[in-house]
Write a structure and sequence with these properties.
This protein is of the alpha/beta class and 91 residues long. Helices cover 47% and strands 18% of the residues. The longest helix has 19 residues.
Length: 91
């Protein structure tokens, strides 16, 4: 299966927003549709950042399963050097 789009996980933090924008620009450059997915944020009741990241992925995987999609999941802080990998996966 060939991925139909990318989901970019982000949170409301300004740095996350900026990195997510960079990831979106990479998708646009190589012609991949993308959708932002709002991740689980650190809060008074949820202080474990690793757990927040895991919950974000679990929530997104559930959505992908329900929609029966084949996608690429990108985190807001993706390394721009991985753009070549996305080209390979989507060609």
């Amino acid at each position: 299966m060939i991925p139909t789009k990318a989901y970019i996980i982000r949170i409301t933090d300004p740095i996350s927003q900026e990195y997510a924008k960079t990831a979106a620009e990479s998708c646009e450059r190589i012609g991949i549709q993308y959708e932002f997915f709002e991740g689980v944020e650190k809060s008074e009741t949820q202080t474990d950042l690793a757990l927040c990241a895991s919950l974000s992925h679990a929530n997104l995987w559930k959505l992908i399963y329900e929609r029966k999609e084949c996608v690429i999941i990108l985190e807001h802080d993706i390394d721009p050097k991985l753009e070549g990998l996305a080209n390979l996966l989507c060609s």
